[in-house]
Each structure stands twice: as structure tokens, then as C-alpha cells.
Write a structure and sequence with these properties.
Blueprint: H1 2-21, H2 41-46, H3 73-77, E1 84-90, H4 93-104, H5 110-126, E2 131-134, H6 139-145, H7 149-161, E3 170-172, H8 184-191, E4 195-197, H9 202-205, E5 209-217, H10 221-232, E6 237-245
Parallel strand pairs: 1-6, 2-5, 5-6
Antiparallel strand pairs: 3-4
Bound molecules: zinc ion (2 copies).
């Protein structure tokens, strides 16, 4: 027992010594920062955080302020299956760098910083959620990437909000071709039947407020399909949170779906 305590103490000391040798790096570049999981001032200045005014449902940023509960034309014409979607930042170079290091590098510590950005966007709803989960990757892709960054961020958000994290709430029931190069309708077709609620958790979803986390919301086809499946399983409220979201400049208010 005592030996185990000594060993644990030694390990902790070794980790602290290593932290001193390897100063924390910026989320998006190699610059040194004071605390792990932070952005350096230069990268922070280049990240376009999404704030008001935005569509109360899909979170699409509006160019001009208006009524607080205003919704965009696409949501008015064809309401999505989720209650609301928010993303921390517009997808751009610095966010891309942070996500690339996160996906393919060894810097899972970035998850902490990215989760902090997402928590900022999802704060009003995280505390009232019944569970937090991530968009599932197909097992084959998970093997290639080693971890699912959406689930990793989801678990951190759940822990900080004090609500259950259920990483295997949803299952990817079949592999899909990559979405790049597909139109919005093509993406939706590609994803039909690709997700299911894990039978082990089916009873938990009915009447629940589920927070669903994705890394980059491009057209919104993936989160829309997942939300449709959750709604079919009886979810009462679905909040989608993304690390980043693609906003096409110039026609921001005319995107058909997120
Ligand atoms: Zn930086
Ligand atoms: Zn909208």
C-alpha cells in the first residue's frame, strides 16, 4: 500500500517535471502558452467565434441584429429535427489547424481547449441536459484515427456540466463514403440509415434532453440525420454543439441547411 503510494507520488513528480521540460503549446500552433489547452494571442485573434445575432434554431450567424428569437428562412420553411444547433467558431485556418493536430497527432490535450470553446457556445443548455454524446464514427475509421474527437469533447463537456456522458449512445450501423464533394441532398442520401440508437440505451432517450457533439458542422447533414434518429427514439429536446461550423461568406443567410 505504502509502496503504491510512493510509486504514485513518484509518477506525479515525474509528470510535473515533464510539464516543466515541455511547456504547454497553443491549441493551433507550436507557440508556447501559459496553460495547456489555450490559444496563443495570435491564434485567438484569428479565430472567428460565433455569437449573436444568430438563428435561434440552427445557429446560423446573421449579419444584422434583430429580435432575439429570430429564425432563418431555411428553418422557417423546413424545421430541422434538432431543437437548436450552436458551434463555437466559424471554420477557418486556425480551427482547422487545431482539429488536424487533434485528429491525427498525439495532442489529445487539445480536447480540453476545444471543449472549453464549445462549452462557451452551449452553456445555457449543457447544465439542463440529461446526457451528452458525440456523433459516432464507424469502427473502421475509429481504428484509423485512434479516437473519436467528438466523443472526447462530449465527455469533457459532460464532466464539466455534471451530467452523464454516454459515449456509445448512438451507433454507426454502416460505413458511408466520405461526404466531401457531395451536395446537400447527396449527403443526406449517403447518411440515410447510417445511425441507430444503441439498444442498450434505448430506454434512456425517451423524454430526454440529449446534447449531441460533432467536430465540424459542414452542411449539417450528419447532425440532422442523428437528430432524426434520436427524435424517433423519443428524445424531447436535442441540442447540437459543434466545435466549428462552415459559414459560406457572402450568402450566409441563404444556406438551405446547416
Ligand atoms: Zn497559436
Ligand atoms: Zn436557422
Amino acid at each position: 500500500m505504502e509502496q503504491a503510494a510512493i510509486r504514485a507520488g513518484a509518477r506525479q513528480w515525474a509528470r510535473r517535471a515533464l510539464d516543466l521540460l515541455l511547456p504547454p503549446q497553443c491549441l493551433a500552433c507550436d507557440r508556447q502558452v501559459a496553460e495547456p489547452g489555450r490559444l496563443c494571442p495570435r491564434c485567438f485573434g484569428q479565430i472567428d467565434l460565433i455569437g449573436n445575432p444568430l438563428c435561434a434554431i440552427c445557429g446560423l450567424p446573421f449579419e444584422f441584429a434583430g429580435a432575439p428569437e429570430r429564425i432563418c428562412g431555411a428553418c422557417a420553411a423546413d424545421p430541422p429535427p434538432f431543437t437548436r444547433a450552436r458551434a463555437a467558431a466559424r471554420y477557418g485556418d486556425r480551427i482547422r489547424d487545431a482539429l488536424l493536430g487533434f485528429k491525427h497527432g498525439d495532442r489529445a490535450d487539445r480536447a480540453v481547449g476545444l471543449a472549453r470553446l464549445v462549452a462557451r457556445a452551449g452553456q445555457p443548455w449543457l447544465a439542463h441536459a440529461d446526457m451528452v454524446t458525440g456523433v459516432p464514427l464507424h469502427p473502421r475509421r475509429l481504428l484509423h484515427r485512434r479516437y473519436n474527437q467528438a466523443t472526447l469533447v462530449a465527455d469533457l463537456l459532460a464532466r464539466d456540466a455534471g451530467v452523464p456522458g454516454v459515449p456509445d449512445l448512438m451507433l454507426r450501423t454502416r460505413a458511408t463514403r466520405t461526404q466531401g464533394g457531395l451536395s446537400g441532398a447527396g449527403r443526406r442520401r449517403n447518411l440515410r440509415g447510417a445511425f441507430a440508437v444503441n439498444p442498450a440505451h434505448k430506454g434512456r432517450v425517451s423524454g430526454a434532453h440529449v446534447v449531441l457533439v460533432d467536430d465540424v458542422i459542414t452542411t449539417g447533414a450528419t447532425v440532422t440525420e442523428c437528430a432524426r434518429v434520436l427524435k424517433r427514439a423519443g428524445a424531447a429536446e436535442i441540442t447540437v454543439l459543434g466545435i466549428a461550423r462552415v459559414v459560406r461568406t457572402g450568402h450566409a443567410t441563404h444556406i438551405q441547411s446547416i
